[in-house]
Amino acid sequence: MKLAPLFDRVVLKPLVAEETTKSGIVLPGQAKEKPQQAEVIAVGPGGLVDGKEVTMQVKVGDKVIFSKYSGTEVEGENENDKLVIVKQNDILAVIE
Amino acid sequence: MKLAPLFDRVVLKPLVAEETTKSGIVLPGQAKEKPQQAEVIAVGPGGLVDGKEVTMQVKVGDKVIFSKYSGTEVEGENENDKLVIVKQNDILAVIE
Amino acid sequence: MKLAPLFDRVVLKPLVAEETTKSGIVLPGQAKEKPQQAEVIAVGPGGLVDGKEVTMQVKVGDKVIFSKYSGTEVEGENENDKLVIVKQNDILAVIE
Amino acid sequence: MKLAPLFDRVVLKPLVAEETTKSGIVLPGQAKEKPQQAEVIAVGPGGLVDGKEVTMQVKVGDKVIFSKYSGTEVEGENENDKLVIVKQNDILAVIE
Amino acid sequence: MKLAPLFDRVVLKPLVAEETTKSGIVLPGQAKEKPQQAEVIAVGPGGLVDGKEVTMQVKVGDKVIFSKYSGTEVEGENENDKLVIVKQNDILAVIE
Amino acid sequence: MKLAPLFDRVVLKPLVAEETTKSGIVLPGQAKEKPQQAEVIAVGPGGLVDGKEVTMQVKVGDKVIFSKYSGTEVEGENENDKLVIVKQNDILAVIE
Amino acid sequence: MKLAPLFDRVVLKPLVAEETTKSGIVLPGQAKEKPQQAEVIAVGPGGLVDGKEVTMQVKVGDKVIFSKYSGTEVEGENENDKLVIVKQNDILAVIE
């Protein structure tokens, strides 16, 4: 399903860090405790949020770091896609 | 009963996800832990809510995702209708 | 006693749902866990409440749904009348 | 002692409900759990309270209902007078 | 030591209630649980406190009642003077 | 190290009260539970702090009383200097 | 990875205090409990943060002291770089 977040919410797709073993085999990093990186999938309109003006500072495609314990997990268009909806303020930084 | 929510409240009807078993039988998803999708049944007028200007961004008929633990359960026009009244801010995204 | 609520408070009289048994006897619903419906008995003046402008959106006679755990129980004009004083914001919706 | 409350505070004298036994003897209601009614003894000036404009809506002599667990108990002019100082917002309604 | 409180703080000297025993001996009330009365010793300048305008409503010499559990105990000019520094908002009423 | 505090923060050097024993020997008061007095070592610029205008009311050299449990301990230019960084609002009063 | 913090966030690189043993050998201070000093690596744009205007007062290269328990740890460009993303308000002082 396609999501249009409200207010200052942002839909994120957490990134799975890939890793190369010494033998050269690439292992997906699923078992590692590092889910803080994500790609921005959809961005809310911002504007007046809880009575405060918010401008959106991230855009679709940005790679970001977000607080691991924030947000709500939802399912993406494919059942295997695990998305997270966070408030923009839970995004700490854009990765350049 | 028909409900006209106050302020920035929204009446939601949680959606029951249907599922097809391998044998082709459609099973209603009631036993599954996925009650976060809902249809918008009624929308409050917005305006000054707790001293803050709120504009309503969802409309009747929208499919939305909302925070599972928010809101108050009420009974709809039919006894079997379980509705939920949430504040608009508990709605995370519209499903397009 | 007659009550004139202050600020954005509203005096409610919880409704007792009546029920008809199969034998046709009407049983008052007192033993059931459904005290969320109420009739509006008195409405405060609104205005500046805790520094925030509040306009009253319910009126005497409205049937409403309110949060079961909000408000303060008081006694009405008859000793058997159990009234509840809530803030308007604890009223979720008007029943039309 | 005579008290001039600051800000939006109000000095209340809780009312003791009298009761008549079947034999006609009037018993003061001290042992009953119903201390929510009170008479207004003194009213603060209102104005800017914690940065918010407050207008006083009760006056000396009003009979009111207040939240039982709010306020601070103080002693009145007679040692036996138990007064309560509450913020006006802890007063739920005026009894008419 | 002499204290000039900042912002909306007030230096109080709790009053010790004197008591006369039946034999006429005056006993200082130190062992009694009634430390809520105090004399105002010094008053802060008020003004913008935490972004909110505060005007000081008590003055040096006022007898006041304050919330027993508020404030910070400090030592006065004599080691035996126990003073209390409270925010003005912790003062409930002036005793007239 | 020399510290320039941000916003409304103030660097304090807690004062050690000296004491004279009966034999006339001066004992530094380190073992006593009275660390609430301090000298102001550095003062932040004030201005907009968390969206609220703050003007600094203490200056370097002031003797002050501060809340014992507030602030963060840091090391001064000498390893033995224990400094405390507090927000100005944690300073209760200037000692004159 | 290179980080561009949002809003009033600041990326810090905690400093490891070096120490010289009596024999003159320099030991990195990793085992010591003093991680409060840091160098500023990147600074957010400031502006309207949660509805409040914030101006950034630190710049890249500043040595600062920050609250040890604030912020979120992230990995820098080298795997061994441990960075911390804090809100500017968690920075107590600049070290001059």
From TrEMBL, chains A, B, C, D, E, F, G:
Fetch the PANTHER family from UniProt.
10 KDA HEAT SHOCK PROTEIN, CO-CHAPERONIN GROES
Checking HAMAP family in the record gives: CH10
Question: What protein is this chain from?
Answer: Co-chaperonin GroES
Q: Which UniProt keywords apply?
A: Chaperone, Cytoplasm
Family that this chain belongs to:
Belongs to the GroES chaperonin family.
Q: Which residues form a coiled coil?
A: none
Q: Which GO terms describe its cellular component?
A: cytoplasm
Pfam families assigned to the protein according to its UniProt record, in alphabetical order: Cpn10
The record lists the organism as Hungatella effluvii
Gene of origin? groES
What Gene3D superfamilies does the record tag this protein with? Answer: GroES chaperonin
* Subunit-level organization: Heptamer of 7 subunits arranged in a ring. Interacts with the chaperonin GroEL.
- Does the record carry DNA-binding as a key word? no
Where in or outside the cell it occurs: the entry states: Cytoplasm
Q: What does this protein do?
A: Together with the chaperonin GroEL, plays an essential role in assisting protein folding. The GroEL-GroES system forms a nano-cage that allows encapsulation of the non-native substrate proteins and provides a physical environment optimized to promote and accelerate protein folding. GroES binds to the apical surface of the GroEL ring, thereby capping the opening of the GroEL channel.
Could you cite one Gene Ontology molecular function of this protein?
A: ATP binding
Q: Source organism's superkingdom?
A: Bacteria
PROSITE patterns assigned:
CHAPERONINS_CPN10 (PS00681)
Major site of localization recorded for this protein = cytoplasm
